[in-house]
């Protein structure tokens, strides 16, 4: 998602609230109608003591309190804006605050200044995002990728570039071609190198070009097909070049040794003979297996000792290849590999060996686990959501379990009195208490201020009563005495495996509402209990 949300926290003492609101409304209007993937959202939030800063969300805090702004300027993702009397600001205070505006500025000037600051926050985020996406994109390429400035210095490189030149990427940055490829400068300037000719050709023509270039790297000659294009600024001036280099050495020299072919593949790979003896293996597999010579590597023994099956065997229709996912643990790191075992057939149809290729899918599995966690987790509280809760009940309803069906009392009054930010804090802290008090249970937020806890197996009723009492007390203490506070209504339902999911939930819901009814009767008969915070 390229679109971003910006929370704009406004101190209650700021007099320019109407101008700030106009800026926020105007920014939202500019984004109206855009696709959600690129639409920015600007949310105005009254500041009421301490902003409930959301992680992974950009924030802007506007205040005339320099100490508060200085504190929050150190938070990740938080920008600060001072609007007030600038004459009394010390140099130290000015250095700690991101943006400073005078309260005496004309309304239109102030409006434009705040707009510029908000657009700057989004612009800086987009600048970082585009650079991150671009770098991630080129790092995923199996070819070398580079960007040069107008003087020929390499300003952006991908990881494959460093591997091919056998140098760290950081070493190559801001260096020219001879320094990277170990060519003496006097030889480079006096000779007709293909790379220099191709650079001059695309700059003079102003068009992309494709070239064949032979280079010496690591003591070996390599053949590359390069794709280069000039880069222009907004005024049409050439500001540099960018290119992609595809290694075609193994295609240009068919007499090349098998070891070079295998070593140029960026995945762990081995070639075995018909008796499963290792003929060739690349350095990637050597590093993974901890061996230095191919003839010392017994693939079958290593596989049975180190690779743990984590997926089903998938065999091709002709039974000449199979794939299976394995987990590999090395030190404190865990990897996931999709292992291909392919039969090698000669022209007469005889099996002459086997080809082994291990595709690292660790990040893919991590990404899938992240998506699964997000699908099952409530965004605000971090506990399970309603969808997962119902799935869990369906899978375990045939066994004995206890359901605690809960709802906060008087929660709306907290939102109306203190703001939704305070209400969100109550919801999150309630979830934390539930996890702490019921560490062995499945804790979920069903929506709004409703929660549930599922305890599988037999329970001790006395211990359960103690835990429920602890929870009730913890929830009551979420608010300070002297104002409205919340309580929690808990309905407890049991099943020995004979009830349906709906029956269990309806029973817990009904019992919970009986408790809630009693709580509301107390509130109606003695409202001071809720208004004064008496316990």
What is this structure's SSE topology?
Elements: E1 5-11, H1 17-31, E2 41-47, E3 58-63, H2 66-72, E4 78-84, H3 91-96, E5 99-102, H4 107-139, E6 144-149, E7 154-157, H5 159-165, H6 169-172, H7 177-181, H8 185-190, H9 194-205, E8 209-217, E9 220-232, E10 238-247, H10 249-252, H11 258-263, E11 269-273, E12 278-281, H12 283-289, H13 299-306, E13 307-309, E14 314-315, E15 321-330, E16 333-345, E17 351-360, H14 362-376, H15 386-396, E18 401-409, H16 411-418, H17 420-437, E19 442-447, E20 450-456, H18 461-476, E21 487-495, H19 501-525, H20 528-532
Parallel strand pairs: 1-2, 1-3, 3-4, 4-5
Antiparallel strand pairs: 6-7, 6-10, 8-9, 9-10, 11-12, 11-17, 13-15, 14-15, 15-16, 16-17, 18-20, 18-21, 19-20
Helix pairs in contact: 1-4, 16-17, 17-18
Q: Whole-number radius of gyration? A: 33 Å
What's the total helix number? 20
Overall morphology = flat
Distance between the termini: 47 Å
Report the top-level CATH class of the largest domain. Answer: Alpha Beta
Share in β-strands:
25-35%
Q: What name does CATH use for the topology of the largest domain?
A: Alpha-Beta Plaits
Give the second-level CATH assignment, the architecture of the largest domain.
2-Layer Sandwich
Q: Tell how many strands the DSSP assignment holds.
A: 21
- Name the helicity range: 40-55%
What structural category arises from helix and sheet content?
alpha+beta
Major sheet: 7 strands, antiparallel
Low-pLDDT windows of residues: 250-257, 530-535
The whole-number mean of residue pLDDT values reads: 86
For CATH, the homologous superfamily of the largest domain is named as: Reverse transcriptase/Diguanylate cyclase domain
Number of domains: 4
């Amino acid at each position: 998602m390229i679109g971003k949300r910006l929370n704009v926290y406004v101190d209650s003492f700021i007099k320019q609230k109407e101008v700030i609101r106009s800026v926020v409304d105007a920014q939202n209007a500019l984004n109206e109608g855009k696709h959600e993937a690129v639409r920015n959202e600007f949310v105005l939030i009254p500041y009421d003591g301490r902003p409930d800063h959301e992680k992974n969300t950009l924030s802007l805090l506007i205040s005339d309190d320099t100490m508060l702004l200085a504190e929050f300027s150190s938070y990740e993702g938080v920008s600060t804006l001072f609007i007030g009397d600038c004459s009394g600001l010390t140099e130290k205070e000015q250095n700690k605050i991101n943006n400073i505006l005078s309260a005496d500025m004309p309304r239109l000037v102030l409006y434009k200044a705040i707009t510029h600051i908000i657009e700057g926050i989004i612009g800086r985020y987009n600048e970082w995002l585009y650079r991150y996406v671009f770098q991630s994109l080129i790092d995923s390429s199996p070819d070398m990728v580079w960007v040069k400035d107008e003087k020929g210095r390499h300003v952006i490189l991908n990881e494959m570039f460093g591997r091919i030149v056998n140098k760290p990427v950081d070493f190559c940055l801001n260096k020219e071609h001879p320094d990277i490829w170990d060519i003496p400068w006097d030889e480079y300037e006096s000779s007709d190198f293909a790379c220099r000719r191709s650079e001059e050709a695309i700059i003079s023509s102003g068009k992309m070009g494709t070239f064949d270039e032979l280079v010496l790297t690591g003591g070996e000659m390599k053949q590359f097909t390069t794709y280069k294009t000039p880069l222009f600024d907004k005024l049409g001036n050439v500001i540099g070049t960018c290119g992609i280099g595809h290694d075609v050495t193994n295609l240009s020299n068919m007499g090349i040794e098998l070891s070079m072919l295998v070593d140029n593949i960026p995945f762990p790979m081995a070639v075995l003979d018909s008796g499963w003896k290792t003929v060739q293996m690349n350095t990637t597999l050597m590093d993974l297996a901890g061996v230095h010579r191919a003839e010392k590597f017994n693939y079958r023994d290593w596989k049975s000792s180190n690779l743990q099956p984590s997926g089903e065997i998938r065999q091709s229709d002709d039974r000449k290849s199979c794939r299976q996912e394995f987990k590999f643990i090395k030190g404190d790191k865990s990897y996931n590999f999709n292992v291909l075992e392919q039969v090698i057939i000669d022209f007469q149809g005889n099996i002459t060996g086997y080809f082994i290729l291990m595709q690292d899918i660790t990040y893919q599995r991590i990404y899938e686990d992240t998506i699964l966690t997000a699908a099952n987790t409530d965004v605000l509280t971090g506990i399970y959501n309603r969808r997962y809760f119902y799935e869990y009940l369906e899978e375990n309803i045939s066994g004995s379990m206890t359901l605690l069906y809960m709802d906060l009392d008087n929660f709306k009054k907290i939102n109306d009195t203190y703001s939704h930010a305070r209400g969100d804090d109550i919801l999150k802290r309630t979830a934390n208490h539930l996890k702490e008090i019921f560490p062995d249970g499945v804790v979920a937020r069903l929506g709004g201020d409703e929660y549930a806890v599922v305890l599988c197996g037999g329970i001790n009723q006395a211990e359960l009563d103690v835990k429920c009492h602890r929870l009730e007390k913890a929830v009551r203490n979420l608010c300070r005495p002297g104002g409205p506070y919340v309580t929690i209504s808990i309905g407890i339902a049991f099943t020995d495996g004979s009830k349906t999911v709906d029956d269990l939930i309806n029973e817990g819901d009904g019992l919970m509402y009986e408790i809630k009814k009693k709580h509301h009767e107390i509130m109606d008969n003695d409202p001071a209990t809720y208004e004064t915070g008496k316990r």
